[in-house]
Amino acid sequence: MKKSILLFSFLLIFSSVIYAQEVIENPEKPLSKNTGRVLKIKETMSIVDEPGKFYFRSPRDIKIANDGSIFISDYRGYNFLKFSPDGKFLNNLYKKGEGPGEIQSGFGYALSQNEIYIYDYVKRKVIRMENDGSLINEFKTRTEQYNEFNGIFGDWLVFMKLVFPYKRDKVQMYQVKHAIVLLSKDGEKEKESHVFLNKRFYVANSGMMVWDPFDSVFDENSGYLYVSCTREYMVHVLDMNSGKVIRSFKRKYKRVPYEMSQDEEDFIKRVNAPRKKYEEDINRLHLFNGLLWVETSTKDEERGIMIDVFNNKGQFVDNFYLALGGYLESVQDNLIFVSESDENGNIIIKKYIIGDKY
Known about the structure:
The protein has helices at residues 2-18, 262-271; strands at 23-26, 37-38, 41-47, 60-64, 70-74, 79-83, 89-92, 107-112, 115-120, 125-130, 135-140, 148-153, 156-163, 172-184, 190-203, 207-210, 215-219, 224-228, 235-239, 244-251, 282-288, 291-300, 304-310, 316-322, 327-332, 335-341, 347-354. The protein is mostly beta strands and 358 residues long. It starts with a helix and ends with a strand.
């Protein structure tokens, strides 16, 4: 126990050094002059349920392979779906079970040339298969469970692992460790690349309230992992080549007042938890042709959600709105994928092509 406390204390000190990097403070307005516009997009394809083949429950993590094939994960619907570039259903690669090539429940995945790497979060194993679903091999990971599969960096698989404080026996805010871990593709080697910390409010044997968000996106071309882990507007750039945060950046941002649910109001009153005054400034991070799209908490009824654009040097280069009828799932090449619902509540995946300068 004493050793664990000393280790966690070291991580707190270590993390304070991590964030003692030069912070790039961008102004409220980006470099581009055409800011605040609504980005022109055009719907080119939609994917709907096909009875007897698949149905969507919670589609996420849409990726495009080198040959244009589209992959969509939906573990709640026992789906790992492959479509042709024009949206024709090809195969469901999800095989539920505990045997070779089978997935127990939730999973993450990454594409590599003509192969797919899948991480089964429940069985703690890595499955390697061909793009058509043919099993190549699989192995159990030696460490405790990883919590997020970020992507592939050369001969390494990139994961995020949550490590909680040894004791959470008080009603208070705790620092939670988010360790970025590299695992060799054969599972034989593991090394911790970096540590980020954020806050969660715990009540012993009663519940938890996530205070700080954690979102990341990995650019396999540059080896940069972009991380947002505070409620305030801030992005850290972890260079996987050096294992160091090479820069952090933010911009002047008009914060959005927080809208509290009744359940959260009841929880706060019951345990005297802190109140959130503002929404998380950053909702999600996306990559678009080497640029970072920051999906903000700012929404306009007519123009949609506000997107900030940064280059890999942390400069605020553009800003626009996306008027969508649903949830922004993925951004790739010159395409965006959105999940929408029809009048009967059925989920539709729509593909849009971007029509202006991007």
